[in-house]
Every structure is written in C-alpha cells, then in structure tokens.
Amino acid sequence: MTSKQVVLGPGDSIGEEDTYVLHDFLPSELADTALENLLKEVQWNVMTHRADESPPLLPFSPTVERIRQHVEKVLNEPVNHALIQHYRNGSDYISEHSDKTVDVARGSKIVNVSLGAQRIMTLRTKKDVLANLNADLDASNSTSQKRRVQRVPLPHNSIFVMGLQTNARWMHGIARAPERDKFGERISLTFRTIGTYLTRDELHIFGQGAKGKTREEARPVVRGGEDSERLLAAFGAENHQSDFDWDAHYGEGFDVLHFQPTHSIE
C-alpha cells in the first residue's frame, strides 16, 4: 500500500482543487491587534464539537466586522456568519470532520482566518473514497491505496478558503500539536454564507435549510422530536459519505433549532 501525504501552501491547489490558502491576509495594523482585541470582545463558551451543539447567535464585534469585510474582498461574495474558536495552547484541537452544509449557501465557500500560533490543518479523504478506489484497483489487480492526506500550515494572519467539493470528499481537522505546552494561543474565525434565517424573536425559521423557503413561509421553530433525529442522521451521513446527496437528505428542510437527541452520532 502507498500513502500520499503532502504539505501544501500558497499557490497550491488543495483538496478537490477548489480550496487554497493565502498568507499575510489582513493589513498589519489589524493583524497585529486582532487576537488581543478578540479575546476581550468575544463572549467565550466551552464547546466539544458535537453535532447537536449550536452556539448562541450574537452581533459581530467591531474586530470581527473588520475581518469580515476583508474576507468579502477576497471572496468577492458576502459572508454573514462567523464561528470563533480559541485554542489556548497546543493541546486544544478539532477532530477530523466535514462541515454540516444544510444551512450553508450552495456554491459558496467556507473560510477560516487564523490569528496567533501556527497550527496544521489536516485534510484526509473520506473512507468511502478509499473503498471505492480500492474496489476499482482490485478489479484491475493493481496495488491498493491508503487514504490521501494533505497538511496545510496555517500561520498567523493566513486565510484558508475551502470549496464545498473538498468539504464533501475530505475530512478536515486541527490535531494536537507536538510539544503542546510550548505552543501559544490561537484564534480561528470560520466565516460562512448562511441561507437559513430566524425571525428577530427567534421563534420562526425559513430559508434554504428550513421547510419554509421564504419569509412568508416561515414556520415555528421545533425543539427536539423526530425532526431532530432525522437531521442528526443526515449530519452523520454527510460526515461519512463522499457522494452525499444534499437534496435527498436536506432538500425537504428542517425546522429544528435546538437539539434534544436521544442518541449521539459520529
């Protein structure tokens, strides 16, 4: 068996060739102060990256808004949502996963801005990609393969732009760092274009990922129940299937905002 593992950087095509990384993204006057300012501005909570976790929705802080404007210049398209994560040292990590795209505008990009200590983004093809490849190789009596792995260093003031095809066929994550205690803190900001919306009172939901697709069709938010179980099952399928059928799993829509699952998923 052979393993393809490479380190990639600016100028390289990453994943399904719809993904790239840029360095020195923000102007120095913003990059030099952003981490310290975000530590003060953001209302931090502890998360464990479960499928049923949903952090509270809050307005962009002044620093997040400035960074968002620079992201939009790179993408030449709007972003309206940011997930902000604080890595206290090299021990903090995010396990390999595919982002859930039920609410992510189709055809858009998922963007990660890094501030502080450099960490490595690892991309790995999903297991079913390997299984399908090896089935074809077995039929031709060729040598079987391992899952492809790509590593992308994310230094301070870099931007990682991921296309949805890469998200579909590859897992991505930030592993624990070697010599963990020697690594400084890092903040990552993940920007997305979200196509599902809540009314101002957060009692009704509509848009791409909801059952009601327009504001006029907005429906009451559901908490728990069969909709939650169906959505969690769809999340699990998206996390493992490289040929995930978005329309079949998500097309009907869901009115779930807060989960009350009876079981966990991987």
TrEMBL record:
The keyword Signal does not apply. Gene3D superfamilies: Alpha-ketoglutarate-dependent dioxygenase AlkB-like. One of its GO terms (molecular function) is methyltransferase activity. Residues 78-195 form the Fe2OG dioxygenase domain. Keywords: Methyltransferase, Transferase. One of its GO terms (biological process) is DNA alkylation repair. SUPFAM superfamilies: Clavaminate synthase-like. It comes from the Eukaryota. Pfam families: 2OG-FeII_Oxy_2. This is DNA oxidative demethylase ALKBH2. It comes from Trametes pubescens (White-rot fungus). The lineage of its organism: Eukaryota, Fungi, Dikarya, Basidiomycota, Agaricomycotina.
